């Protein structure tokens, strides 16, 4: 997951390969609650791990359910099975509608004393229709802030009050279907003696989500009947029965970003279509019907149980005019696809967008306009006119409003024909439903290497370049290459593979170097699964490194390996010849220096902290001698690239040096 302040997406060209999607949020949280209300243990497979499921799991724990996260996407939930939940309890539910609404109903029907709250936006998301329905029944619920909104207090300290179950429970369905879902999931708790009837007042929006609710209730032994989605009957004698094991299918709304990417950029030049795994045409999720919308726009889609394959069909895409009430979440993706269409696309019947993670109609309109599109909006519709020419596209910094879907769907603007990058602010917000969204995108998106930014930080020994480069990489969410460590790592790998570092083994050593599984992560260096940070810093490793680097075929292989670090979304490379030899066309090159006195002092501190004794004056003499040797040697002498910016950090803290490099980088961005 990217937790950077922003994430810059380079212009993308194609999409290919396959992507395995994480579990459905809607299914995960329903299954967790149903398991919590059942007797015995339910083993949930492929559960979504995200902010929304985290708050649900934490709430269930606080309520006294057994929650065992077994790893590998498996959670074992031991339900209450008729026991009263732990009370009093304060539950923090973030911004998860699928936790707040159903838990409100369930706890109101279980008895006890609870406070349910969330992030500030959750306190602006309506829940009044559900609270009204529960109050009708006799439940005591107070809104602690504004009437009709969380935070809520359920006050059944003295036990459940007598409930009025003989009359139908009326609930409005035109603001959110989650109110009806909440009642459907919870009312079987009190349907022992008689049928419980729910009547929907007014139109029911987002109806396919009720289908998911009914499907999952059925798997937990509760067969709800309904008349045309207006009147629902929970039969007397209903009892939650755990299926023992249950599998969560992948999220169909999350699939929409990849279906769109496929429709725009997959299957070109004879390549295979993009494969999407975990959700297929047999899905119980309504958002699978996004496939039909994408097809209407020209996408070629094939699919079966648990998989989809998508490629570009019509290009430009075809504009559509669509009632999107049945796919409220995935429809946001259509608004960005509209940028690539042949006319004005209008999305209708989407009033609920205004009360979700943010006012999504306003947010989409504002951000699409930043890209250059002409957008009109109404109370419950949005229309987007594409950009007439590639030159009309603008590079934009997309504000994401703490809305995962805004972040995810605007990543698709990086496929723009103008070759412009797109900045996504606060990329961490995707954690609500798809924490590794950008990693998944980068795994299937392709672009020519020269479009992937590289920042080179070269400099003499002990100038602090490794530390600065690693932190710049971290701030930008870029990959990091410590090229100096490459030779040491190659030598270590050779030793471990039992290959002597001798000219006669040069081809084998080069082969090994070419496929060296080295990674730089969290300030450590990894060789496959081994942390080799310290192992490559020994005297012996240094000597072996110098022997291995004398072999031309190994050097060549390592150049290829270093070039291979230029991966989406970008790279920060430190060393001695990054800007001069390896990435001569890098868009930012920094030559980082510090006075010999300062460098000697830093090295001294480093050694002392490792328990190695040394004197500053000896270290300084060594450094100066090495500088002179490095600068004067004929083969790639250490020197700044002509277009490098010089940064003397003798008097700077690490943070200041990092801030300077990031400031130079920012100054070169079009945002
Ligand atoms: O029941 C559900 O799982 C959901 C219902 C929909 O909300 P509304 O019914 O409020 O439209 C949807 O937007 C949300 O992401 C999940
Ligand atoms: C509306 C959404 O979330 P929630 O489940 O919080 O309503 C969403 O995921 O787009």
UniProtKB/TrEMBL annotation:
GO terms for molecular function: 3-phosphoshikimate 1-carboxyvinyltransferase activity; ATP binding; CMP kinase activity; dCMP kinase activity. Pathway: Metabolic intermediate biosynthesis; chorismate biosynthesis; chorismate from D-erythrose 4-phosphate and phosphoenolpyruvate: step 6/7. Monomer. It catalyses: CMP + ATP = CDP + ADP; 3-phosphoshikimate + phosphoenolpyruvate = 5-O-(1-carboxyvinyl)-3-phosphoshikimate + phosphate; dCMP + ATP = dCDP + ADP. HAMAP family: Cytidyl_kinase_type1 (MF_00238), EPSP_synth (MF_00210). ATP binds at residues 459-467. This is Multifunctional fusion protein. It comes from Pulveribacter suum. 3-phosphoshikimate binds at residues 25-26, 30, 176-178, 206, 329, 356. The active site is at 329 (proton acceptor). Its EC number is 2.5.1.19, 2.7.4.25. One of its GO terms (biological process) is chorismate biosynthetic process. PANTHER family: AROM/DEHYDROQUINATE SYNTHASE, PENTAFUNCTIONAL AROM POLYPEPTIDE. Residues 15-441 form the Enolpyruvate transferase domain. It comes from the Bacteria. Coiled coil: none annotated.
């Amino acid at each position: 997951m990217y937790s950077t302040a922003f994430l810059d997406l380079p212009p993308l060209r194609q999409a290919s390969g396959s992507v395995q999607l994480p579990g459905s949020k809607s299914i995960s949280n329903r299954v967790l609650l149903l398991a919590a209300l059942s007797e015995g243990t339910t083993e949930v497979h492929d559960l979504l791990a995200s902010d929304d499921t985290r708050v649900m799991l934490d709430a269930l724990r606080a309520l006294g359910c057994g929650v065992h996260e077994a790893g590998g996407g498996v959670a074992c939930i031991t339900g209450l099975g008729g026991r009263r939940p732990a009370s009093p309890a304060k539950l923090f539910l973030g911004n998860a509608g699928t936790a707040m609404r159903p838990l409100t109903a369930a706890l109101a029907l279980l008895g006890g004393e609870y406070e349910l709250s969330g992030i500030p936006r959750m306190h602006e998301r309506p829940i009044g229709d559900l609270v009204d329905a529960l109050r009708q029944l006799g439940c005591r619920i107070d809104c602690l802030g504004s009437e009709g909104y969380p935070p809520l207090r359920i006050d059944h300290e003295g036990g459940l009050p007598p409930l009025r179950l003989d009359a139908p429970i009326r609930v409005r369905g035109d603001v959110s279907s989650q109110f009806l879902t909440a009642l459907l999931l919870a009312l079987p708790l009190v349907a022992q003696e008689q049928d419980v009837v729910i009547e929907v007042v007014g139109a029911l929006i987002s109806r396919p989500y009720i289908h998911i609710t009914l499907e999952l209730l059925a798997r937990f032994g509760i067969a709800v009947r309904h008349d045309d989605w207006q009147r629902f009957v929970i039969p007397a004698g209903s009892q939650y029965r755990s299926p023992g094991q249950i599998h969560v299918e992948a999220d169909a709304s999350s699939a929409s970003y990849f279906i769109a990417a496929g429709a725009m950029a997959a299957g070109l030049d004879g390549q295979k279509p993009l494969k999407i795994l975990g959700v297929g045409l047999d899905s119980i999720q309504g958002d699978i019907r996004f496939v039909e919308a994408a097809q209407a726009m020209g996408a070629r889609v094939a699919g079966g149980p648990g998989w989809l394959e998508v490629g570009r069909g019509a290009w430009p895409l075809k504009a559509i005019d669509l009632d999107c009430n049945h796919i409220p979440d995935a429809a946001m993706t259509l608004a960005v696809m509209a940028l690539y269409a042949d006319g004005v696309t209008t999305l209708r019947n989407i009033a609920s967008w205004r009360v979700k993670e943010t006012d999504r109609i306003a947010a989409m309109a504002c951000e699409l306009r930043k890209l250059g599109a002409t957008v009109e909006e109404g109370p419950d519709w949005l229309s987007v006119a594409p950009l007439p020419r590639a030159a009309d596209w603008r590079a934009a910094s997309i504000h994401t409003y703490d809305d995962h879907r805004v972040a995810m769907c605007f990543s698709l603007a990086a496929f723009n024909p103008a070759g412009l990058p797109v900045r996504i602010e606060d990329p961490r917000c995707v954690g609500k439903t798809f924490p590794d969204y950008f990693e998944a995108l980068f795994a299937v998106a392709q672009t020519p290497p020269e479009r992937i930014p590289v920042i080179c930080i070269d400099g003499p020994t002990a100038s602090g370049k490794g530390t600065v480069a690693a932190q710049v990489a971290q701030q930008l969410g870029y990959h990091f290459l410590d090229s100096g460590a490459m030779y040491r790592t190659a030598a270590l790998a050779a030793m471990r593979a039992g290959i002597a570092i001798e000219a006669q083994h040069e081809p084998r050593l080069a082969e090994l170097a070419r496929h060296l599984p080295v990674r730089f992560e969290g300030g450590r260096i990894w060789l496959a699964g081994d942390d080799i940070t310290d192992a490559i810093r020994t005297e012996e490793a240094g000597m072996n490194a110098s022997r291995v680097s004398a072999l031309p075929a190994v050097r060549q292989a390592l150049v290829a390996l270093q070039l291979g670090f230029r991966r989406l979304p970008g790279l920060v490379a430190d060393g001695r010849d990054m800007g001069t030899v390896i990435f001569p066309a890098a868009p930012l090159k920094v030559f980082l220096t510090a006075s010999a006195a300062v460098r000697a002092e830093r090295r001294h501190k480093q050694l002392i902290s490792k328990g190695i004794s040394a004197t500053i004056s000896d270290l300084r003499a060594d450094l100066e001698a090495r500088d002179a040797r490095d600068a004067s040697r004929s083969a790639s002498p250490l020197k700044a690239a002509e277009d490098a910016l010089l940064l003397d950090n003798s008097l700077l803290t690490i943070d200041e040096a990092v801030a300077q490099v990031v400031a130079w980088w920012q100054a070169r961005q079009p945002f």
